Amino acid sequence: MDPSTGLDATSAARGFASSHEQQENATTQATQTPQQVATPVGIPTQETPPSLQLPPQQQYSISTAFHADFLLDDSIPDVVLISSDHVLFYAHQTFLLSASDNHFAGLLDIDAIGTVAGSTAGSLSVVVPTGSTLFNVVLHTIYGLSCQQFQPPLDVLLQAVQTLKTFGIAVDQFLARDTPLYDHIVAESPPVPIEVFLVAAEHKLDALAVATSAHLHSLVLSQVTDEMAERMGPTYFKRLMSLHLERTGYLGKLLMVAPTHHEDTAECGKAQRKEFDQAWALAVGNLMWTVRPDIPADELRSTLSSIEQHAKCNECKRSLHARVHDIVVNWSTNAKQTI
Ligand SMILES: [Zn+2]
């Protein structure tokens, strides 16, 4: 489908939201604990629409985001998707079908719909084999909406990728750069970037893999297991290795350039500079021996600056500091950051 359709849906869907957002905020405050917990995606209800003919014995909730008044381009919902834990999500059948290439995993197939007795517009209900926390993420993504306010855990966000695929949604479009789910996952990825990178690589979500790789400079490649390598696939594993090699290679090049020498003076000539040159060579040698793609700029600065004591004149000191500054700036800004 045309991704712009999702964006139009986003703006249309935002129009309805204000009163429900207030409700959600109240719910969030009531349920928040010091630790981050997922916000409930539905509000329990005693009464379900009679037209849905749901078994009365169940306790149902209604989605706070996808409720009966959830409009898409001024259209009211015409299908109710019921999660495995009995949360009702009101949605738009034609819109879902336009986003899916498999009739929403066959659930909205014309034949399947035909079997729902007495279904009329607004009364069609379909049970989805997915829990509400996960399905809430899935539906937000299809409608081009952010679900950050529900604070779903990262593993649910990552699970949503496969679930979207199952529902026939083109994940390369719906998780392209700057889409809501892409932004959400990127924001949550720093604590466990490898988990995100593996999912991104598995599903060929290149923008997500690239963004996440910026947090993988400290990954020890020798600790990548066979299973991880298999999930990454040869292409992404190679790109990650190349990133590490390029970073360490670039640092090596920076370190190869020593501080410039000044003209001999009475105070400081070749003989006086020898100790300084040796100290520089030793510091560089030590750094190269333990070179890591994630070496912090501060560590570079402190290690290299520590040889100041071997500089015999102010000009040598100035030259050292200029060189160290140049190395640190280049390392921080010009070293390759992502695959
Ligand atoms: Zn000097």
What is the number of beta strands? Answer: 5
Number of helices, counting only DSSP H or I runs of 4 residues or more: 14
Shape call: elongated
- Number of structural units classed as domains: 2
Bound molecules: zinc ion
**Sheet with most strands: strand arrangement:** 1-2-4-3-5
Biggest β-sheet: count, sense, barrel? 5 strands, mixed
The radius of gyration is 29 Å
Order of helices and strands: HHEEEEHHEHHHHHHHHHH
Portion of residues within helices: 40-55%
Rounded to the nearest angstrom, the distance between the terminal CA atoms is 29 Å
Describe the protein:
This protein is α/β, with parallel strands linked by helices. Helices cover 51% and strands 6% of the residues. It folds into two domains: 3-188, no CATH class; 245-333. It has a five-stranded mixed β-sheet. The radius of gyration is 29 Å and the shape is elongated. It starts with a helix and ends in a 6-residue tail after the last helix. The structure holds zinc ion. Zinc ion binds at residues 262, 268, 273, 312-313, 315-316. Residues 1-56 are annotated as: Disordered.
